Structures are given as C-alpha cells and as structure tokens.
Amino acid sequence: MNDQFVKELFTLLKERAKTNNKKSYTSQLINNPDLLAKKLGEESSELIIDFVKQNKKGIINESADLLYHLLVIWLSSGVDPQEIWDELSNRQFQSGIEEKNNRGKKYE
User: Fold this and answer.
1) How many other C-beta atoms lie within 10 A of the C-beta of residue 99?
2) How far apart are CA 63 and CA 83, in angstroms?
3) Residue 1 and residue 14: Cα distance in Å, rounded?
4) Of 15, 33, 41, 73, whose CB is crowded by the most CB atoms within 10 A?
5) Average pLDDT by consecutive 10-residue portion of the chain (108 residues)?
6) Which residues of 57-94 are buried (b: 16+ CB within 10 A; e: fewer)?
7) Given CA atoms 64, 21, 10, 36 in this order, what sign does their dihedral have?
8) Per-residue model confidence (pLDDT) at position 56
C-alpha cells in the first residue's frame, strides 16, 4: 500500500458518504458519530486481541477494518490523509519519547 492507494480509497469513501444511508455503510457511519466511535473502538479491541494471540490472519483483517473506520473518522472530521502524513513526516527526526513529552505543550 502507498499513499496513492489511500488517496484513491479516501476519494471513494467521499463518494460513498454522499449516497443514501441505506445503501452505504460509510454514509451511515458519518451520519451517526456514536456508531462510528463505537466501531473504531471495537476494531481496535479486536486487533489488540488478535495481536496478543499472535493471530496473523486476524491482525490483517482487523487492521483493514480499523484503517477503514479511521479513514471514515478523518472524512467525517474534515481531515485529509495528507495532513496525517505531514504530521508523521514532522515527527520522523525525533524520538517517540521526545514527541510524547512535547504533546502536552502542543495541545494546551
């Protein structure tokens, strides 16, 4: 997977979000933030369980589900994937510990 794939998938999700709720799960999720949040939590938990069990197939499936729901959250929130890539790019030359320590200052 590369950033072009994510861009194409994100564009597809934008189109699906515009369709009738009954025909588009993406649209249903965008129009029900509580359900979207619940699904993101469920997929995260399922991924964690499969990771602990070292279930590779489960990790693959749940990661795909989690990524889909994450993309829908970005779409629902007006966040473009490029903004995420830019943030990751900004972090690449600092340690994870340094980045985490700076978070509190950054969001205050």
Assistant:
1) 13
2) 21
3) 19
4) 73
5) 81 88 89 96 97 98 96 95 89 74 62
6) eebeebeebbebbbbbbbbbeeeebeeeeeeeeeeeee
7) negative
8) 98
Helix or strand (DSSP H, E) at 81:
helix 81-91
The rounded distance, in Å, linking the Cα atoms of 108 and 91 is 19
How deeply is 37 buried, as exposed, middle or buried, from its count of CB atoms within 10 A (0-12, 13-18, 19+)? Answer: middle
Which helix (H) or strand (E) covers residue 37, if one does? helix 33-52
105/68 Cα distance (integer angstroms): 30
Please tell me the distance from the alpha carbon of residue 43 to that of residue 49, in angstroms, as a whole number. 10
Dihedrals phi, psi of 93, to nearest 5 degrees: -105, 15
For residues 32 and 77, is the Cβ–Cβ distance under 8 A? Answer: no
- As a whole number of angstroms, the distance between CA 90 and CA 86 comes to 6
Q: What is the DSSP letter of 95?
A: -
